[in-house]
Structures are given as structure tokens and as C-alpha cells.
Amino acid sequence: MTDEVRQKLREKKRIVVKIGSSSLQHAQTGDLDYIRLEVLVRELCNLKNQGKDVVLVTSGAIAQGKKAVHVRPEDMERNSIAVKQACAAIGQARLMMIYQKIFSEYGQAAAQILMTRHTVDNEMNRCNAQNTFEELFCLGVIPIVNENDTVATHEIEIGDNDTLSAVVASMIGADLLILLTDIDGLYTDDPRTNPQARFVDTVERLDERFYGMAKSSTGSGVGTGGMSTKLIAAEIATKSGADMIIASSSDIRILHRIMDGRSYGTLFLANPQASFCLPEFIATLHGEEGKTGHQ
Ligand code: GLU
User: Fold this and answer.
1) Which of 59, 98, 194, 243 has the most Cβ atoms closer than 10 angstroms to its Cβ?
2) Domains and their CATH numbers in the chain
3) What separation in Å is there between the alpha carbon of 32 and the centre of ligand 1?
4) Mean pLDDT of successive 10-residue stretches along the chain, which has 295 residues
């Protein structure tokens, strides 16, 4: 069964890959890891060259902005939200500059899409974003997505990029979402504290048991997502009809190994549900049951 479902991954046509802030930088300094970035871009270009539609959801704007202007603890104390938003404005531009440079080395056009919750809630915004994605795929472009942190306040933020990547996968009808992170998949308990924790290879049906296994920590202290947000992403992706994989970003060549049908990471199998409504699900996440806000 496992082999068979893994082999099926070769046939995926529309793939969203998400990479977190801590996976893009050197742990010791917080500076960008250019080798990892280059391998990431090369892997994405190679998928694209196989005729697949590819989207990159990248974090790192706030972390790189902070590095660029040497934010001090007293700056954060002044107004941490405004400082983070300013850092996102600085860091997002820097990240894009670097991505554009590396993508262009492979002759690959890339585009930037910045989203907020309005992009999900507001039907016209959602349609516009979907049309833009479709047109970019037709034009052979790889969209690079992040949350528009500079304008996103709590009311309109999606929250974290695990959720954002699943939202993107759902909106564009992707058939695979891959979350690259600092752990190699889901364990029955936190393997950093419990040596008995067992690795989960495949999740056929996501249920409460698995939420119990997830821990709200990334271990890196950078970025926002932990295993809990990854399971929320899995719920959105699988209910929308996409398989999802959580895999280690320590060697990004894992992407082509996964796409070759080899058994890396935890695979969550698609479980499409016609009744699944993305704006309602996001409203529920924000504790807004009964008032979906989608127009
Ligand atoms: N959007 C944030 C950034 O680019 C990251 C959010 C996250 O890591 O989940 O800095």
C-alpha cells in the first residue's frame, strides 16, 4: 500500500512547496543559507521542467528584515507589531531579489503574490487571485507566495505560512502540498524529548489521535508554525483533495526523491469533501464560528 501510494506521487501535476524561515537560514547567525536556497530553486525549476505547475510559499521576510536593519530588543519593545511589519517590508523585497536572481540563473520566470485573509474571504479577491495563479501557470511562471505581513493585522491575517500554503493549495486545486521543515515528519510524540516516539509514515485519515501527537513547537524559535499548524494545513489540504507531505528541509534534494516515489516524510492522503468551505474553515480557526465573513 505504502509503495503504491508513494509511486502515485510521480503523477502529481500541481505542487505547492512551503519552506519555513528557520530552513532558509543558518541557525548560528540567522543569515541566509544560499546553498539551500539554490538547491530549492533548482529542484523547483526541475519540477517545472517536467511539465508540472509549481508554487513556492516562502517565509523569512520578517527574519531577514530584522537582520538587514539590525533590529534591537528595544525596537521590538517600542511597538513590536509595527516593527515586524516594517521588517517584513524590508525582508520581503530582499528575499524576492535573491529568489529572482537564482531563478533567472535557470532561465525561469518567477512572480510574487502576497495574500491576506481578504484573499480568501472576499469572493472577488479570491477569484482575482485564482485567475492570476492560472495565468501565471499558463505563462510558465513560478509564483512565490507569502502573507502580506506589512498590512495584515490580526483580523485579516491568515496567521502562519503552514496554513497559508494549504490555503493556496486549496484555492488553486493543487494535488500535492509539501511542507519542508526542521523535522522529518510526524511522530507519535515529540522525538526531541521522548526517545520512544515513533515516526508516522502515512496518515490515511486525519483524526483527533494525530492532533494529540502534534506539539506546538518548532524547536528553532524562528517563524511561527509548529506541528499543530502543520496538521491544520493537512486538514485544509486533504479535505480540498490534495495529498500533503511533511518532510525535512535539511537536504532539499528530498523534493525529487519524494517525487520519484521514494518514502520520505509523512504522507497525508487526500480525503476530498464536497462540503469543505475554505472561508468557513479559516473563520473557525480564528474563533469566529457562525460569522464566516465571506462575501
Ligand atoms: N510571513 C512570515 C514571514 O515571511 C512568516 C510566517 C511563518 O513563518 O509562518 O516572515
Assistant:
1) 59
2) 9-285 (3.40.1160.10)
3) 15
4) 89 97 94 97 98 97 94 88 94 98 98 96 96 98 97 84 97 98 90 87 91 60 69 97 97 98 97 96 83 46
